[in-house]
Amino acid sequence: MRNALGLMLATVVSAAVIAGVWFWTSSPRADAAPQTVAARKAEPLPAATKPKDDVEVTASLTKPAPPPAPAAPVAAKPVCANPDALGVSRTVIIDTTGGPGFGFLQYKQFDFLTEKEVVLTFDDGPWPTTPAVLKALADECTKAVFFPVGKHTTYHPEILRQVYVAGHTVGSHTWSHAHLDSKKMTEAQAKEEIEKGFSAVKMAIGAAPAPFFRFPGLGHTQPTLAYLGTRNISMFSVDVDSNDFKSSGPDQVIQNVMTKLDKQGKGVILMHDLQKHTATALPTLLRRLKAGGYKVVLMKAKVQLETLAEYDAMLVKDLKVPTVASRPIASVVQTAQE
Question: Which residue segments constitute the domains of the chain, with CATH numbers given?
Fold first, then answer.
């Protein structure tokens, strides 16, 4: 009896030991190191499309981004419609500091023109004949320097505006074409003639004129020369005088210019755009210059002239007109019936 009970107890103990060993070996341990499993070979990804940048993606979440603003157009150089035009061979910029003079008849310091070069200049406008002069110059795609009279400018401001808009250089030729070398002319009067002339030009073109000046009759004095120097206004004389104001007709104007020019070879040519003979002669004269191998030089100022406020005001008060003729005649006066 006692042996059977002992055998049974031994069997139970053995079973308990076996169960404990099995539990210990088969359950995971908290401090056991994790087992490493070999990674499966990666499969190739499908071909991806090109990624968009952040700006594009962000914009697509709301609305398409506006296209960039187009670049400002660059003004193209005007093309001459005449392939055989006289044109402008070169443009020179004049530093008028101290009032330099040009034109060998009186001022011989600055000889800047080379052989066969000319400067076209016109005095005494603007006048109803001036548009014909402008057309002749435009047909040959060439430029000139204009010296208008102040009073004439107030008569025909729209014509002088055409001169300026066409790209010509606009200086002055006094207020009333008074000869500043007259013995009756005081220094104060001469100053007024100079300054009111420039103020009239500014009033007409709506911009500062070039500091270029020509004495009526080419008559200067030491005080007027000194005054122009203090104002940094360049003085113009002449090399070739057309004498168009006393010519018998257009042919005489052409002959006068070409005869003197062929003798001298170059120079500043003086003409008058208020002379009918000059307006008529100019198309042929320009063709003669081209045929003779002459080239036109355009003179421009480095700095435009600042007119004096007291003379601007004096002009406005005397004329009782607006300071700028902003409306063309066609917009003010229209024909209702003919």
Answer: 96-106+116-319 (3.20.20.370)
